[in-house]
Specification:
This protein is α+β, with helices and mostly antiparallel strands and about 475 residues long. Helices cover about 45% and strands about 15% of the residues. Strands 1-2-3-7-6 form a five-stranded antiparallel sheet, covered by helices on one side. A three-stranded antiparallel sheet has the order 8-9-10. It is globular, with a radius of gyration of 27 Å. The structure holds adenosine-5'-triphosphate and magnesium ion.
Length: about 475
Amino acid sequence: MSFERHDALATGTILHGHTVEKVMSEGGFGIVYLVSHLATGEKRVIKEYMPSFALRAGDSQNVGPRSISDQDTFEWGLKAFVEEAQLLMRMKHLYVVPVIEAFHKFGTAYLVMPYVNGMTLTDWLKQNGRPGQSDMDKIFIALLEALKYVHENDILHRDIKPDNILIKPDGQPVLIDFGSARQSAASKSQMLTQVLTHHFAAFEQYSSNGPFTPALDYYGLAATMYFSLTGRLPPQAPDRIHGDPYESLIGDTTLSSEYRPSMLATIDRCLCVFARDRLQSAFEIQRAMLGELPENVITVPPLTPEPIPESSPGSEANPEPGRQQEINKLSTNSYAGFWKRFMAAIIDAIVTTGISFAVGMGYGILVVLAGNEPYIDDGTASVLNLLINWTYFARMESSSSQATLGKMALGIKVTDLDGYRISFGRATGRYFGKIISMLVFCIGFLMVAFTKKKQGLHDMMAGCLVVNK
Ligand SMILES: Nc1ncnc2c1ncn2[C@@H]1O[C@H](COP(=O)(O)OP(=O)(O)OP(=O)(O)O)[C@@H](O)[C@H]1O
Ligand SMILES: [Mg+2]
């Protein structure tokens, strides 16, 4: 992701025993510097944790979140960056860029790598044109070796694409830029679609729920192979759910006369939209590419998702959980209806009344213990009530369950318009929007019964949906 930010460290800055020579790249998550090691003069590369929502303050070199509301996400991402760097420091593989060390400075974190002499696969393709079969084998069989190794160490790369593969002068590939920390930080801040690379990201990467398995890296690798052979980007995964525009490689007569058909079929198979339809191990993919597996093992299964059931009482049964849930994440046809939401609201009213009662009792006991009359004036009671209701709704609807107890009981949850979890701030907006929904005979609530997406006025104001789980 290319990104102009103008707040990188200046050339000549001394950074943990290195001198900054120049900025190599400014991504949405980090700045990459070419540096030289002060003691040995060796060329190295340092990556700085610098997400798009962070900045280097004024003249100081210190990095921090752009606003207070980004503080938590900044720190969460920083922790994930360092943890990932520590994992990568243990990786030693010919085709994986090593991480020499990681350190904290200027309020952020850095990882140090050796400089790999080479060019990105993107540049290699521009310079050399379409790779031949032997180049394809040399590059991608080697990258599958790298994936075997990282997956065995419980790491997913998550951002395999031509820009993240370096090709050395001898033609050997090196995998760089592991994106797990970036993606987990993004899922925390509901920014998933801003960090993943469209066309190379697997369908499941568009959701914070996964499933996150090695098969998502096989998708990225197959998309990279597809691009290398055709010069075209494969269609974006979410666009493939209905009326898949993907053009199979095995059906391309020009390619199949030049390349091993088993390799073309393997690419098609690993580009299946649903993780479970892809091949499931790097070894299997290598064998399939080389024509060592029977043809029927590689054949692409048909993409025939079941129709999404219309929401109606009693139609919640999910005939095939894996595939159906994957479809549901981006297809929000299953909106929760008025009566279901009404029942959930009654349960929540009982729960919040219970909490208010318990808090009132507790307050009363404290007052009596302090030797006063057990009396709460109306004003205090109303403020307490409001605080209890607001925290209950906003916290629960922005939590991982995305639902209050009432909604959980009815099997429904709150999402944003793309089907993702909402933030605490948005849940707060939705909660206070209910005051407006309540005006004029609760018309804002009744709108749930007759709007297309079954949204109340407060849902519309906060950009939310209430859907069946
Ligand atoms: N170890 C390295 N040796 C040589 N060049 C490197 C090395 N690491 C990165 N580069 C160069 O810097 C570019 C950017 O690096 P990288 O892909 O790690 O970060 P990014 O994509 O800018 O960051 P982000 O994590 O924000 O997406 C690479 O495309 C490559 O040209
Ligand atoms: Mg990159």
